[in-house]
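Q: I'm writing up a methods section and want to include an example of the input and output format. Could you take the sequence below and give the corresponding predicted structure tokens, formatted cleanly so I can copy it straight into the document?
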Amino acid sequence: MANKQPVRIKTISEFHRLRGLPNPEHPLISVINVEDVIKLPGDEPTNFIYDFYSIALKRNCDAKFKYGQQEYDFDEGTMFFVAPNQVFGIEHGNNETVKKSGWMLLVHPDFLWNTKLAKDIKQYEYFDYSVHEALFLSEKEETIIAGVMQNIQQEYHSNIDQFSQDIIIAQLELLLNYAERFYHRQFLTRKITNHTILDRLEEILSKYFNSEDLVQKGLPTVQYIAGALNVSPNYLSGLLKVLTGQSTQQHIHDNL
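A: Here is the clean output for your methods example:
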């Protein structure tokens, strides 16, 4: 199938219409039960760009998610994060017996306007991770994340008052901090995969510094190293900081 131009979805209301959902109760934030989301008609897969943040916790989705030229199965208990203007694709399977479940939280940047989180949200590097660097949750972690999302939903279901936005922002910060904690746990517990990355990193640096590349091109960039390892620069940085206490740049200089 020929590649299509990405479909840009500008508003949360537009997302609701596209996926057969009732109008959102709040135009700038929405918590969605994945069971209520319908597949798009026609010849998916389609690439998408959102003008808002999407935080998804999904199970049993019978779908593949595309990042660049690669496809990844979407395992149970998986959480991933999309920031505004990122391109991603979805290819749904044909297994109608799979019962999909989970939650999606959509947040338009305008909801964060004039709050501290509007700036701080850019510090959560996992919004720039690739799809295959998703967060794999334990059952207990899933329960925590789903609970926070439902708290947010309950808050905007209630009568909106002068405290509503602050309470929702606090819950959103809590969710983001839990995700940060769980990624830290994932870096530590997925030892075989992560130490394989470390071993490959040392091999790549050793080969680079023992070749003519150092003279001809100078020091390798973080982007070059991440590309050679097939991981995103931010994911590599987060992994190295947890496992070694050093950034990718420090590893490069230490191998000189």
